[in-house]
Amino acid sequence: MSNEQKPAATAESTLADIVSHAKEYGFVFPSSEIYDGLAAVYDYGPNGVELKNNLKQLWWRAMTQLNQNVVGIDAAIFMHPLTWKASGHVDGFSDPMIDNLDSKKRYRADVLLEEKAAEYENAGDQVRADALLAEMGRLLTAEDLAGVKQLILEEKILCPVSKTGNWTDVRQFNLMFSTQVGAVADDSSKIYLRPETAQGIFVNFLNVQKSARQKVPFGIAQIGKAFRNEIVARQFIFRMREFEQMEMQFFVRPGTEGEWYQTWKETRRRWHEALGLPADKLRFHDHDKLAHYAKAAVDIEFEFPFGFKEIEGIHSRSDFDLTQHQNLSRKKQQYFDNDLNPETGKPYGNYVPYVVETSVGADRLFLATLCQAYQEETITEGEGEKQQTKTRKLLRLHPAVAPIKAAIFPLVKKDGLPDKANEIYNSLRHDFRLVVEEKDSIGTRYTRQDLIGTPFCIAVDHQTLEDNTVTVRHRDSREQTRMPIAELRSYIGEAVSFSRIFEKL
Ligand code: ATP
After folding, report:
1. Which residues hold substrate (predicted)?
2. Burial class of residue 438 in the structure, from the number of CB atoms within 10 Å of its CB (0-12 exposed, 13-18 middle, 19+ buried)
3. From the CB of residue 197, how many other CB atoms can be counted at a distance below 10 Å?
4. Cβ atoms of 297 and 287 closer than 8 Å
5. Fewest CB within 10 angstroms: 62, 76, 246, 463, which?
6. What residues flank ligand 1, with Cβ below 6 Å?
7. What's the fold here for domain 94-174?
8. What is the pTM of this model?
9. pLDDT per residue over 161-194, tens digit each?
10. Which of 364, 365, 366 for a ligand 1 pocket mutation test, highest count of atoms within 8 Å of Cβ?
C-alpha cells in the first residue's frame, strides 16, 4: 500500500471542488436554492451541522472547561438600540465602497487595494506590497476617502468585470441590518440585528461577574449569530451576510493588557494547530488600520485556496466599550479590585477593566477545516497482476470533529450479519454517532465514508459470529486491524476524544 499526496490543484479549481463536494456530501447548501438561492447566505446540511457543532463544542470547551476563569453566556440577537450607538456601530460601522460605472458592480475599496498588494507580494515585491497597505491604512484612518480613490486610480486598478478604471467616488456604507419592533413603524422602533456578539457580553459584564463570582482577570465566552450587510459577498462561506461568531472578552486590570494580549494570541494560534491546521498555513497579520480605541490588533490568517485570509481577530480594546456603555446607560461599569497593589500596599480599588478579545468566525473555521481536510491522493491497491493505481478523495478530518465516528458494515446482507451489525450499533450509540450501511460493495462503502471523513469503518463478517471480533479499517492509512467488539468503545473513544486536541495546547 502506498499513499502519495498530490500537489494542490489551481486555486480556483480547488475552491470550486470544495464547494461542490460540500454540497454533494451534505455539508453546505446554498440558501433557498429552489428559488435560485440568496446571495451570501448558506445552509448547513446533515454532515455540515455535525462538523460545525463539533468545532463549536471544541472552542466552547477549550474556553469554559479548560479555564476556571472563563464562563459563557447566550445573549439575545436583538439589543437595545443604544447599544449600537455606544459601540460606535451606528456612526462608524461601515466599509468604504466604490462602484464601477461601466459594469455597475460594487466593490470594497480596501479589498481592491489589498488584492493589488497581494499581486505585488505574489510577484515577489514585498516592499511595494507593504508600502501600499501602509498608505491605505493611513488614508482610511484619516477617513480620507478622496485619497483612497486617488490611490485606486494611481495603482491603475481595473474592474475585474468591465476591465475599466471608470470609478465613482468612494463612499461609506453602513453594514448593519435594521428592522422594526412592535406594530408601529417609526424611527423609535428601529432595532438592529447584531453585527457582532461582543456587545451582548459587554452589557452583561457586571451580571456575569457578580453571579459567577469572578475576579478580574476573567473572561466571558459566547457563540452566536451575527449579521452584516456585506458589500462584496464572495468566496463561499468565507464572507456571509448571516454568520456565526465565537467570541471571548477577557477583562483585565489596566496595565496588564499587553501581557494578556500576547498570551491569548499564542493560545489561540496553538488551538488552531492542535485542531489540525498546519503551522505553515497559519500566520499573524498585524492590522494596518487600528480603531482609535484599540491598543493592538492582530489577525490569525489561514492559507485558503484563495490566499491567506483572516479566520480570527485578537484585539486589545482598552476600556472603550465598557466606558461607552457606562456613559450612555448612566450605569457604572466598574469593578472593585481588592488585590493589593505592591507599590502602594493598598487595594487596586475601583476601575473600568480593560478588554482583550478573541473573535473567530465559526463558518470561516469550518471552511479552513474543510479546505485542509479535503485531499486527493494516489494509491496502489492489490497484489501482483491485480495491482492497480488510482486516486482517492477523502476528508482527513480530526476524528474528534468528524460528523460520523464509525460506520458499521455487514459484509453481506444475509447469514445474520446485519443483525450483528445492528447489535454493535446499539451497544455503542450512546457514546458515538455511528451509521450502519448494508448497500453496495464494501469498497464503495469505504469510499463513501472517506468522502465525509469518517475515521473508522467496522466490517462485520462470518468470523464475527464465531469469535465476536471485527475488522476496523482506518480512513487515512487504509490499514485494517482485527479486534474484539468489546474493545471498540475504548478504542474509538480514545481517538475521538477532545482530549487528543486539548493535550496539545
Ligand atoms: P473582514 O476584514 O474579513 O471583514 P473583520 O475584521 O470585519 O473581517 P471581525 O469584525 O474582527 O472581522 O470579526 C471577527 C471574526 O468574525 C472574523 O475573524 C471572521 O472569522 C468572522 N467574520 C466576520 N465577518 C464575517 C462574514 N461576513 N462572514 C463570515 N465570517 C465573518
Report:
1. 108, 196, 243-247, 357-361
2. middle
3. 24
4. yes
5. 76
6. 196, 228, 230, 239-240, 243, 245, 310-313, 359-361, 363-364
7. Herpes Virus-1 (3.30.40)
8. 0.90
9. 999 999 999 999 889 999 998 877 677 788 999 9
10. 364
